[in-house]
Amino acid sequence: MVASSHGLVERHLTPRIIDSLGAARIVNIVGPRQVGKSTTVEHQVPIAEYLTMDDDALRAAIDLDPHAVLAEHAERHKHSGKPVAIDEVQRVPAITLALKRIVDNNRTHGQFLLTGSSNIFSGRKAIDSLAGRVRTLTLSPFSAAEIVMARPCLLLDAVTEHPGGVPVHALPAAVPYSRTEAIDLMVRGGFPEIRGLADRERRSRYMDYLNSIIEKDVPPVADIRKTTELRRFLLQLGARTAQELSISAMCDAVGVNWRTMSDWYDVMSQLGIVRHLPAWSSSQAKREIKASKIHLMDTGCATAIRNETAVSFAPSADPTALGAILETFVFVELDKSLPLVNDSWELYHWRRKDHEVDIIAEAPGNRLALFEMKASTTVSASDFAHMDRFFAGPASGYTGTAFVVYLGDRLLPFGPRKIALPLSIFWSYR
Length: 430
Fold this sequence. Notes:
The protein is α/β, with parallel strands linked by helices. Helices cover about 40% and strands about 15% of the residues. It has two domains: about 15-140, Rossmann fold (3-Layer(aba) Sandwich), CATH 3.40.50; about 145-425, no CATH class. Helix 3 crosses helix 4 (about 65-75), helix 10 crosses helix 14 and helix 11 crosses helix 14. It starts with 13 loop residues before the first helix and ends in an 8-residue tail after the last strand.
């Protein structure tokens, strides 16, 4: 495995950002702190001007009269064909109405490119007032493919192209890798400035990162005074990654009431710190009723919270811990691929009594890709049993392919629409 150790990493989302500027008046890029939003905008997207709300003087001027300040910048560059970029936009929520006035007077696409750690357009009032004017994209920590300078993982496109079952020859040859390299990739995570550090310093930086979320990102979104309990809540999220969410159990562990816990979870979801994986049902109306799973947005951050290093996942260690991290890793890799593939896919999980499917990707037309994870270098036919039952039962009217993602390096067919998938498929597209 050849990793990118220096220089600017080309973000796979960049072409989508540029395309979106040609289709919407405002493009809004959201994502957790320190994933590289500012770097991407400054160095990979053509812009006319870069403004940051970390500039105290500029922020004070916008607070006083947002329309006048932003209109002046927009007017200055309206013939350039490039957007005015505004960074850390969540620090000035009042900016939304000013933007609406400006883009309603001039309907040209690509006027503003915004970045922030939370989506200032997620409130109902903002959604209603800016409907049809804003396109929001999420920038995540580096994907495995970005780290090793490969093309984006387009695995789900293969499922689209082969609804009756993906043949092995339709997938790229899996890049050879070792179990040690895979674990190192998961433990380091995808944060640009943190992943290259040694174990102790990396864990310290991730813990500092969580503190910065509490101190800088939460206040513009919610009024939270119980910062000690909120830190405890973040630690619990890391400990429970890849598990079904139990608000009552979290309340007991953290020491707050149900309403507070639910509000905190919504805040962390809005900030992109935790990902929400709904339960799948053949009935669309029932998909939010059953328990959702939670995944932390990055396995490096999750292992730091859990005080785990590569040594924690040695062959002689408890395989359960690696199973949770592997499942989260696969989930976030699939999640990062969603804006880059051709179809509109949604991710779910499924459980019924003692049967479960870790991840279900669904596209229009009753097409599915099922994923089970196995923290081993070998696969057997029995590893497909739960997915076989799922296709034979709840999803009997659906097409698709079942994948077991494992730590070996061979693509292996296990009968019709069943493939053992090496983990390296996520960085094997060249």
